[in-house]
Amino acid sequence: MFSIQKFVDRKLQQDGMPVVMGVLNVTPDSFSDGGRFVFPKAVEARVIELQAGGVDIIDVGGESTRPGAIRVPLSEELERVIPVVEWIATRFDTIISIDTYKPEVMREAIAVGVKIVNDVNALCADGAMDVVVNSGVSVCLMHKKGAFETMQDSPVYDDVQFEVREFLLARAGCCERAGIATDKIILDPGFGFGKTLAHNKSLFQGLDALTALKYPILVGVSRKRMIAEILSSTSLHGRINGSAVAAVLAALKGVNIVRVHDVKETVSALKVMKSLM
Question: Which of 259, 264, 271, 274 is the catalytic position?
Fold first, then answer.
């Protein structure tokens, strides 16, 4: 069964760079590419674009988790993501992850080829842990503070680095005790999920404490509000260069996986980093 740790190690040995996870949002209300990849031909074109750009993992999501997003019924999420996962799995060897917190979606997606569950709720939903344990797939556990609808309404921490680290370690421990192998667990500090710009900056600056742990660390800041706030830019296109820079900085801090929208630009930036370092 697929081990994310072995995959990360192999990528590092071969290329000297982190794994690049490309975002494929098949949702009409995603904060970044909402509606662009809902229709089959557009999805196919996006997958081919990701492949050409050098993607290592394609992360398929059928429900937006941006602040204030409307919850999607289970049946609708399944209708969005399962055909896409199945289409990719039958045509490419690329590793597929499913971006969901719903156990039913996890189960169906795994059945048609998903190797990683990317859960913003860190397997806290009833039944989610059992799905991963029983399937043997790898899992990404993310930190999120509060509900999707209100998580950006004045979030407060005493020590954001400490609290995020302790939460992730606690969830990883729960997974291991439930029967998930250590080499199948990824940790994600959850930039932008219940965090102000100051919290995000502090987390990024403290990434070394996370990358020193025994688990692969995933960073997803691509096109997020924090990049827009740093650049004082409201344009999504204007966030691309800043996102690529953030991916390089994350790599320099030892991050194992970067989750990005702009795969070609990110891979190019990482190649330059590797060559010049």
Answer: 259
Dist CA 17 CA 257 (whole Å): 9
Q: What is the CATH number of the domain that holds 157?
A: 3.20.20.20
Task: Summarize pLDDT for 196-240 with one digit per residue, the tens.
Answer: 999 999 999 999 999 999 999 999 999 999 999 999 977 878 899
236: which 2 tokens?
A: 């999504």
User: Residue 246: which residues within 8 A CB-CB, separation 6 or more?
Assistant: 204, 219, 221, 222, 227
Catalytic, 107? Answer: no
Cβ-Cβ contacts under 8 Å for 16 (sequence gap 6 or more): 274
* Catalytic site includes residue 6: no
- Residues 33-80: tens digit of each pLDDT: 444 444 578 888 999 999 999 999 999 999 987 766 678 899 999 999
Find where tokens 């199948």 sit: 184
**Length of the chain, in residues:** 277
The parent domain of residue 219 ranges over 4-276
- Reported as half-sphere exposure (CB side, CA atoms, 13 A), residue 40 has a value of 5
Structure tokens at 193: 């999920």
Task: Please tell me the total count of domains within the chain.
Answer: 1
Given 171, 184, 224, 239, which residue is catalytic? Answer: 224
Contacts of 168 (CB under 8 A, 6+ apart): 122, 141, 143, 187, 188, 189, 210
